[in-house]
Design brief:
Layout (H helix, E strand, L loop, with lengths): L13 E6 L5 E6 L2 E3 L2 E6 L4 H8 L2 E6 L11 E7 L5 H11 L14 E7 L1
Antiparallel strand pairs: 1-2, 1-5, 3-4, 4-7, 5-6, 6-7
Length: 119
């Protein structure tokens, strides 16, 4: 069973690399939570990263700063959109890690939760 790399475990941010149709990576710093050896993040389904994940679920993850500067090695992973019945578990894990995630006004446009499985 794949596990979360130690370089990512417990970090405040990760860089998520999604891939355009031409194979070019697009790096985005994200908040994430860990649960059961998987990573979870929330986003808006209209954003580019969701479109890219729909086209290609293979992603890369790496520890990074709040501004997205990668601070460690990259790891291959696979992303999966969670069905609505799994939202609550992911949301609980995110709320537990980030107190700002508990403010509904900041996240009113969040309608999608994504699970990342390290390769």
């Amino acid at each position: 069973m794949p596990t979360i790399p130690s370089e990512i475990r417990g970090k405040p941010y990760i860089s998520l690399a999604t891939f355009r149709r031409n194979g070019a990576p697009v790096y985005t710093p994200i908040w994430f939570a860990e649960d059961n050896e998987k990573l979870y993040f929330m986003t808006n389904s209209k954003l580019g990263k969701c479109k890219r994940i729909r086209n290609n679920p293979k992603v890369k993850i790496a520890p990074c700063t709040i501004r997205g500067k990668i601070t460690g090695p990259e790891f291959a992973a696979t992303a999966r959109f969670l069905p609505p019945e799994e939202f609550a578990r992911a949301r609980r894990a995110i709320n537990q890690k980030y107190w700002l995630a508990r403010l509904p006004l900041l996240w009113r446009n969040t309608d999608t939760y994504i699970e990342i499985n390290p390769a």
